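Worked Example 4.2. Read the sequence first, then its structure tokens.
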Amino acid sequence: MSGTEIELEKKKAKYGMLAVIASNVAIAAVAAVGVWRLNGDTSVVVGILTAAFTAVSGMTTAYLGIKAVSNTARSMTLAAGPVQQPAPAPAPAVPAPPVGTDAIPAPAAPTSSS
């Protein structure tokens, strides 16, 4: 991996985590305002807090899961080395004749009449 690729990966990780944190803060702020404006209606407050918790945990888990799979795939690719293409199978020289009772016979070769 070259230096520019490493720097790119660092920036992607930093900004990805920053996006997750910013969205989690926004979800928490909206939930807090919702709870504050409802003035203690417990059934609705529980619903808001449950939805906020689900959104925050889902977003964080998705980011960390995708990042872990990406890192694992990258490390496996780097450990395996360059990918080699398999050699193509040679084509058969003569096509095989049809098999079965319903095979169509080949036409007879023309005869010369001189």
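Now turn to a second chain, presented in exactly the same format:
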Amino acid sequence: MSTTYTQLVEIVTALHDAPPDRISPDVTFAQLDVDSLTMVEISMRIERDLGVSIADNELEEDLTLALTTQLIDSKLAQ
């Protein structure tokens, strides 16, 4: 996977105690049991670490990690 995906996984695993064997590009935040507060923390960490601002309504629990990576990459390309 891409560098962005790797960084996203690092952010998610740092903020949420998800078992490494459950992490994959096609898993959603809901499947990882990420709550709304953690979603906000993930969004803030993405902005801090990757320099990409993601609105609260863009980062949803039904997004997969792969789709979240695409969202970040599209914002980085702007």
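Notes for the reader: The chain has a mean pLDDT of 93. The chain has three helices and no strands.
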